[in-house]
C-alpha cells in the first residue's frame, strides 16, 4: 500500500476515533475504503462493537484472534468490527486496520448507536 488509508469512525453524539487501514487483508481493506462512507447501528459482543455493512466480501487471510484496536470485517455477518478490549472474534475475521486514536470511545457505545465511517481527507 503506497498511501495510508485513514478512516474516521464517528459514534453519533459521542465523538470519533481515527483508524488506519493496513495490508493484512489488502483486497478487503481496499473494497471497504472504496465504498466509504458507510454507516450502521452498533451491536456489541463482549469487548467488540460491530454492525453490518452492505458489502459481501470473502475470507482473504482469515484470523481466529484479535488484538486490542483491530478493525476487521466478518464475512459471515457482513460486519465491520472494532475490537476495543481483550475479547476474541466469534469466528474468523479479515483484519483490515487498527484504531490509532481514541480507542476508548468504543467503551461508551450502546446498542443502536449510529456509527459513520468515512475517509480522513
How many H/I helical runs?
Answer: 1
Query: Using only CA atoms, what is the Rg?
Result: 13 Å
- What is the end-to-end distance? 17 Å
* SSE run: EEHEEEEEEE
The chain-level mean pLDDT equals: 96
What shape does the CA trace take? globular
Structural class based on helices, strands and sheet pairing: mainly beta
Helix percent reads: under 10%
Please provide the count of β strands: 9
Q: What percent of residues are in strands?
A: 35-45%
Sheet with the most strands? 9 strands, antiparallel
With strands numbered from the N-terminus, the spatial order across the biggest sheet is: 3-9-1-2-8-6-7-5-4
Unreliable spans: none
Identify the notable features of this structure and list them briefly:
9 strands; mainly beta; single chain; 121 residues; nine-stranded antiparallel beta sheet; 1 helix
Task: Explain how this protein is built.
The chain is mainly beta and 121 residues long. Helices cover 7% and strands 41% of the residues. The two termini are 17 Å apart. It has a nine-stranded antiparallel β-sheet. The mean pLDDT is 96. It has one helix spanning 26-34; strands spanning 5-11, 15-21, 38-41, 43-45, 48-52, 70-74, 79-83, 94-101, 114-119. It is globular.
Layout of helices and strands:
Elements: E1 5-11, E2 15-21, H1 26-34, E3 38-41, E4 43-45, E5 48-52, E6 70-74, E7 79-83, E8 94-101, E9 114-119
Antiparallel strand pairs: 1-2, 1-9, 2-8, 3-9, 4-5, 5-7, 6-7, 6-8
Quick take:
By secondary structure, the chain is mainly beta. The protein has one helix at residues 26-34; strands at residues 5-11, 15-21, 38-41, 43-45, 48-52, 70-74, 79-83, 94-101, 114-119. β6 (70-74) and β7 (79-83) form a beta hairpin.
Amino acid at each position: 500500500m503506497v498511501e495510508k488509508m485513514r478512516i474516521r469512525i464517528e459514534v453519533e453524539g459521542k465523538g470519533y476515533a481515527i483508524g488506519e487501514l493496513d495490508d493484512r487483508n489488502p483486497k478487503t481493506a481496499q473494497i471497504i475504503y472504496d465504498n466509504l462512507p458507510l454507516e450502521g447501528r452498533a451491536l456489541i459482543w463482549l469487548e467488540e462493537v460491530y454492525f453490518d455493512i452492505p458489502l459481501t466480501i470473502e475470507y482473504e487471510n482469515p484470523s481466529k484472534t484479535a488484538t486490542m484496536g483491530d478493525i476487521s470485517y466478518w464475512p459471515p455477518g457482513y460486519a465491520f468490527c472494532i475490537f476495543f478490549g481483550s475479547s476474541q472474534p466469534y469466528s474468523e475475521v479479515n483484519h483490515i486496520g487498527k484504531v490509532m486514536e481514541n480507542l476508548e470511545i468504543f467503551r461508551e457505545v450502546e446498542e443502536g448507536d449510529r456509527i459513520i465511517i468515512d475517509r480522513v481527507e
